[in-house]
Amino acid sequence: MYEHDVIVVGAGGAGLRAAVAADEAGADVAIVSKLHPVRSHTGAAEGGINAALREGDSWEDHAYDTMKGSDYLGDAPAIETLCQNSPYEVIQLEHWGMAFSREDDGRVSQRPFGGLSFPRTTYAGAETGHHLLHTLYEQVVKRGIEVYDEWHVMNLAVTDEERPEDRHCHGVVGYDVASGEVSGFKARDGVILATGGPGQAFDHTTNAVSCTGDGQAMAYRAGVPLEDMEFIQFHPTTLPSTGVLISEGVRGEGGILYNEDGERFMFERGYANNDGELASRDVVSRAELTEVNEGRGIEDEYVHLDMRHLGEERITDRLENILHLAEDFEGADGLDEPMPVKPGQHYAMGGLETDENGETCVGGLYAAGECACASVHGANRLGGNALPELIVFGKRAGHHAAGKEMESAEIETGQRGEFERATVDSPVELGDPGSFGDAVADGGAVAAGGTADPDTLLEDAVEAERQRIDELLNTDGIHHSEVRSDVQETMTAKVNVFREEDGLKEALRELRAARDRYEDVAVQDPSTTFNTDLLQTIETRNILDLAEAITVGALARKEFRGAHWRAEAQERKDDEWLKHTMLSWNEGDPELWYRPVILEGENKEYEPKVRSY
Amino acid sequence: MSTQLPQQESEESTAEEAAEPAATDHDHEHTGGPRRDVGDKTTDTEHEPADTEDTREIRVFRYDPEIEGKQEPRFDTFHVPFTRGMTVLDAVIYARDNFDPSLTFRHSCRQAVCGSDAFFVNGEQRLGCKTQISDLEEPIRIEPLPHQDVVKDLVVDMDHFYEEMEAVDPYFDPDETPDGELEEQRQSRANREKVKMSTRCIWCGACFSSCNIAAGDNEYLGPAALNKAYRFAMDEREGDGKTQERLETIEQDHGVWRCQTQFSCTNVCPKDIPLTEHIQELKREAVKSNLKFW
To answer: Do B125 and B56 share a domain, yes or no?
Structure first.
C-alpha cells in the first residue's frame, strides 16, 4: 500500500494545480493518473483563459457575464470566487513561464470571446490548454511531486454509513497498467478527484477517448450527488468527420458563419442580432442545427466557418494551430476556403456537487475541474471559463485538502440545508441492481462499517477490485465496445442539442438495455500487461452510469435553459426551475432531488433577465 | 525486449530506399507459425468485410511477454474497411474493436496534441491520429517506436524518454518575479516568437526514436530534451546566470555535441519543430558563452 497526505486523481490542469497547491501548503502529495500528465485532455483546450486583468474590466463584470451565460443557474459564491481569483491565477501561470501570446508592450494579450462584455480572454495561440498543461507539469517536476502515471484508479475507499454526509474517503484503489498490480493508496488528509468530463458518453465529441468520467462515476456510486448533469455543452464549431474542435478564437478574431445559401445566418436569420457569431455557444449550436434541419446546411450536415478575410498574417500569428487541425483532420485549407463545422459534444457543465472549496459532502473527498460542479457554469459555460476553473478551484481544493486555513464555504453540499425531494417519470428501472453482485464490486461504498479503521477499509476495497478484475477476466461474454457504441449512439441521437420527451424516454429504455447487456460483458485479453481491454471495459461501466444521469436530468427538467432545450417547454421557467437537478446513487436506486440556485452575491443579488445576445 | 530485432536493423537501413523488400523480410519472420485464435480470425476470409467493400490491409506488430503465442514477436494482418479521412489510429481502433480486443496501443486525444500514439508506420515515426491511411502504401506496417523497449504490441516503455526530458531542469526559473501579485513579466513578441516552435513539443518521442545517436548512446539527452532546454535558454525572462547553467547542462558529454545534424528528428516531428536548428543554435550559444569566459 502507498500512503500520502493528499492523493490527487487525474493529472490535467485541475489535478496538477491541486497537487502544486497541496505541496505549497506543506502536504506530502501524490498524483495518480491513468495517463502520463502531459497526455491529459486539458492539452487540447484551444481558446483561452478569462481573467479581468485590465483597466476598464472588473471581476464584477466577469461575474455578471458568467451568471448571464449560465442562464442564472450558476451559484453566485462559486462564480464570484472564480472571477475574483482568475487574474491572480493567470498571472501565477505567467510567472511560471507560460508562453502567453503578447502585446507590443510585452504584456499578456487578451481577445474577445462569446458572451463576454470585455475582451478578457488571455491565450497562447490557439493552443492555450497545451501550454497551461505543460507549464503546470513543469512545476510538478520542479517540486519533485510524486506522480504514479499509468495507474488507473478503479475505486474509492469510502466508508458505508447510511447517509453520504456521514461517510469518509480514506484513499483510492489503483491498478498499475503496465503490470496489473492492484494497490491501495491511502490518503491521510484527502482525496481530490480531477478526472475530467464524461464526453465519451457521446459519439460526436471533441473529448479524448480517455474522457470517460471515471471520477464522477466512482464518487457518484460512493454517495456524492451528481448536479445539473443534463447541461451538456455542444460546441458550435467542430469538424464534421472527427469532432475535432475548431476554437471559438476563430470567431473571436472575426470568423464568420455561413449557410449553404451564403447567408450570414446568425444575423440574417435573427438568431443573435447584436453579437452574431459571438453569441453564447448554445445559441450558436442551435442556430447551426436549425439551419441544417431547415434545409440550409451544406450536404445536409454542416455550415461554413470562414476566416479567410482575416488575412494570412493574422491567422498565422493567432490561429496557426487551426490551420493544421483543419488540414490534418478535414483536408480543408483555412487560408483558401471556409472550414466545414457542426456542433459536437464538448463539455459537461454539471458534475460532482462541491462547494467553492472543492469539498464534496463525503468527508475527505474533493473534486475540481470538469468533473466537479461548484456550480460556476450553470446551464451554459462561456468560452474561456473552463481553464480558469481548473486553476482556481484546483488550487483551492489542494489547499483545503492539505489543511490550509480557508474561509468556510457558503454553498451547502449533500442533503443539508434547503432542498426538495422529487421523482423521475422513467419508463424503466434506473440504476443498477448490481452487475457484479454487490455494491462493493460495483464500485460503491465499501461495507466496512463506520468504525472500520482506514487501513482495513482500504484493504477491503483493494480485495473487492481484485475480485472484480478476476471476474471480468475469467468469464465469457460480449465485448464492451458493443455496449459503449450503443450508448454513444443513443446519446447523440436522443439527448443532443434538441430534446423531446418521447426521445428521452426512449433513450432511457435503450440505456437500460445497454446496462442489461453490460452484465454479460467479458474482457477478452487475458494479459496482466497493459490490458487496455480491461480498463476500457471498466470505463464503459462508468459511461453507462453517467449517460443515465444526463438523460434523467434532461427528462426531469421541463424547461429551456441554457444548453438544455425541450420541445415541450421552449421557455425558461424561473418560477419553477431556479434550482439544481441533483441525483444521488442511493445504493443503486437513484434518487432525484433539487437544491435552489444561489443568486445572492457578495455585494448584490443577480436578477434573472432575458438572455439575449 | 526491444524492437531492435536483428531483422529490423537491416530493414531500417533499407527502409529509406524501398519499403517493399523490408516488408517481405517481416512476412517470413512473423506472420507464419502458430497463431492464437484471435490472430486467426483476422486472416480468415469470413472476418474480412464483403468483397464489395473497400478495405485496407494493415500489418500490426504483436508482442506480449506473458501470453503464449505472443512472446515471440509477430505481425497480424487485418483488413479494415476504408472510409474517407481514415487515419492509422482509426484503423487500429477498428481492428481492436472488431477483430482482436487484445490489440494494444496508447491513444487519447485523436488530434495530435496528447502525443500518445507515435508509431513506426511503413518505416517512419508518425503520429497514428495524424497519418491518413490514403497516403500510405499497402500493406501498411504498423510497429512500435524503434529503440525503445516494447511493453506490449505498439506500447513502448517511455520512462527513459521522460528521464531525459526531466534531466534538463525543464521548468521556468527566473531570477526574480515581479513584486505585485498582478504584475506581469514582460516578454517581447519577438522573444515569444523565438521560443514559440520549441514550446509546441507534445513529448511523443518520435524524434528520440528516429535519432541514431540516441540509439547508440543511452545517455544522450536527445532532440526533445535539448529542445526543452532551448525553450528556456532562449527565454529572455530568465537571468544570465541561469542561462549559463542551462548551457553547461546541454554541453555535457552526452549533450549537444553528440548531434550529427542528420535531421531525422526534424523530419519526423509531427509538430514541425525545427529540432536540429535548435540544437545547432544551442551549440553556437555554448561556444559564444565559452569565449566570453576566456
So the answer is: yes
